[in-house]
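hey m, so remember when u said the tokens were messed up on ur end? i reran from scratch. heres the input so u can diff it against urs
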Amino acid sequence: MTNLGLTARDVARELARRYSTMTHDELDVLESVLVPMKFQKGDRILREGEVCTNIYWIVKGLVRQFYYKNGKELTEHMAVENNIVMCIESLFKEEPTHLQIMALEPTLIYALPRAALEQVAMRSVNIQILYRKILEESLIKSQIHADMLRFETAQDRYAKLVKLQPQLVLRAPLVYIASYLQMTPETLSRVRTASLMEKDRR
């Protein structure tokens, strides 16, 4: 079955497999809160000034989270299939976000509305665990990215991205990868060339 053919039940099972063991009844409950959403390439999933009310699970596609600073677009996060994306500050403060989320490919998402998820989590320890682990994973990934930008060279940043998220490197436009790694497209081009030459020498 392709990712595009996944049902809400399949997604509930995958989330349970990844984050928390669940009974049949708990899977029913989790499935009931999932909301399918389809986007074309270039569509905005969330716009600046909107309040983020969902945790998004990407079933198929590629998305980019970005913001504007001094008239320039800066890429904060990118994600492919089987990953979570959200604007965590807006989600919990219930305030408008400065971030935007955009589909870079035709994308299928299952949204977990925060209000519905918290309601069912009150009645299920396993759904509570799933919710907590999703948030933990998101915070850890943000910390890894922040530390990478703070402490690692351009070469090491690119090497880590290749290792941790190879699909991103293959599918995302170079200009967004450069922005995500906080380097110019020219620097990224040099780093990639050096990386390929290093691979050829091995």
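this time it looks ok to me. The chain has a mean pLDDT of 94. if urs says something different then somethings off w ur setup not the seq
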